[in-house]
Amino acid sequence: QVQLVESGGGSVLAGGSLRLSCEVSGYAGNFMAWFRQAPGKEREGVANIAAPLGRTEYADSVKGRFTISKERSQGRLTMYLQMNSLEPEDSGVYYCAAVTTGSGVPLSPDSYAYWGQGTQVTVSS
What we know:
Layout: E1 3-7, E2 10-13, E3 18-25, E4 31-37, E5 44-50, E6 55-58, E7 66-73, E8 76-83, E9 92-100, E10 112-115, E11 119-124
Parallel strand pairs: 2-11
Antiparallel strand pairs: 1-3, 3-8, 4-5, 4-9, 5-6, 7-8, 9-10, 9-11
């Protein structure tokens, strides 16, 4: 059973940084991503990381500011999202997602079978 647990959200001023974590169990980590959803808006893909080469893909709105990575330590897999130069438009609930459904579109919600519960990020000006 795949389980995803996010942490690291919070409130910051514009220009600040946060690092989100997603603890992954029951999955090797071959195809994972971060999404976000602001009130009244659709869930949007932020960043994807895929095996075997750790290829990454980012939404245009976060390129150069956000970095996705993953690490396996002591048998535990964790995915991260380092967020720098945060803007109020980055506010929302951030979700980690894993396991491809086979649709092959890295930043589409339809491409993922499992989701975490979400963590809130609030950026104020």
